[in-house]
Amino acid sequence: MAAATKITPSSPRLASLLSDVERGNIKIPVFQRQYIWTDEQIISLLDSIYRGYPVGSLLMWSTKVELKHERNVGGFKLPETPEDYPVNYILDGQQRLTTLYGVFNSDQNTADVELAGRFNICYLPEEDIFAHNSATANKDRIQLNKILDTTKLLAELPKFKDEQKAKIAKLTEAFKDYEFPIVTIRERSNKEVCSIFQRINSSGTPLSSMELLTAWTWSDKFDLRREIESLLDKLADKGYEKIDQPLLMRMLASITIGSIDENDLVDVDPDTLVDGVSNLKNAVFAAVDFLEGQLKIKNIVFVPFPIMIIPIVHFYAKIKKPTANQFLQLKKWFWQCALTQRYKAGTNRLVLEDLSKMQLVFNGETPFDDTKVVVKESVFKSSWRINSTSAKAALCLMAQLRPKSFLTGSDVDLGSVLSAYNARQFHHIYPKAHLNSQGIYFHEANIISNICFLSASENNAISDKAPEQYFKDIPKDQAGAIFDAALIPKVARDGKLSFEDFIELRTKELTRIGQLLVEQGTL
Q1: DSSP assignment, residue 237?
Q2: Where are the domains of the chain?
């Protein structure tokens, strides 16, 4: 029951609520979004209040935590007030509160003339409706910015007939006496407040933990949201646009507190968080360079489990200049994780285990020298689906062999193939249509061990030809290197081997190379 007292409902009248805003008792944190409501939403809110309809509650946070806050609401500058904490910060309902403050103060000095013009709403007593001031020429009207100020209202009333005055009186009473529901959070931890945010279900857009963190760490020189957005843009330029904000925040958590839950960041000291972001920037690009330069992976979508990038970033955050042995440990970890499908179940727990092992690597130990790790043939006998974790692991393995064009012998452009997500860049060595004609149907033909790298143009050229036929088109002077790079078994290089025997032999070759990678980290 004690916890319940920390969330307090109240229903102040609208006039009192707006007065609290003007006096600085309610503040808007800088992380709140810009005003985005349409004119239709403004009119709808006013009409609902006038008719006594519910419009949703406001969520406030009463706290001694000092947040950077706005000095104006909807462009209207508020008087300077002494910083006296605890303060009520508006967390949910900012669009509604800004609308109401703007409408009833639209004749005041403003830094946003255009927005103030949109807030200049009138009531038309003859029609009993609300309309924008610009649309009410030559009609009997009263601006809403007059009705809550008695002096202004009395000056306007003589212009109207008695029946119209009665309607205006009803209007004024409806707004002055409207009880606006407010829920105030008190004495809650930062993490609890963050959790409450994420469970809000209102007409607006719920806030995220990053927006809270933006407020706690904001300064004239540091804006967390802007830093994260800039980092996302730079990653997108490098082909890593699939790394999103939640994944970046989980990386940040791993760097600063050894967690992978972004909500845990809300209890981190702001200075530590700012330092963490600086570290994150360097580490994430070092991680991308590792994937691109060492593993030929040009797009995060080809990493079997996208969350694998968290330990890599953690590694580079801890180890700025890895030694040869440390670098090899990272490679071994990658292949052990990818080829054993380590993150297929119990992911969060296993990621945290791996973060602890990265600390051991930092200390000079070799936790990934585990000879018990075994790559199973079943990985390569799985169905070929380009977005499956097994397929991605196999493609990463095949990329290490520097695959070559079947028809020209030139190196396959992995920068192109592994930066796109196009099934036409991969080839069934024994084409499906060819196998189908032999009574070997799709589910048998469409397995990972039957796949190799091939450009879309060559894939089209080979089409459904039998391997016995198109293998003859492979340049004879380069055939050995081409077949080696595609892991085509020597006894299968005339294309005459049965499909069943071919798959058994190629699966063993893929498994052998996979085992070398998990044990040695490289070929």
Answers
A1: H
A2: 3-198, 217-373, 378-520
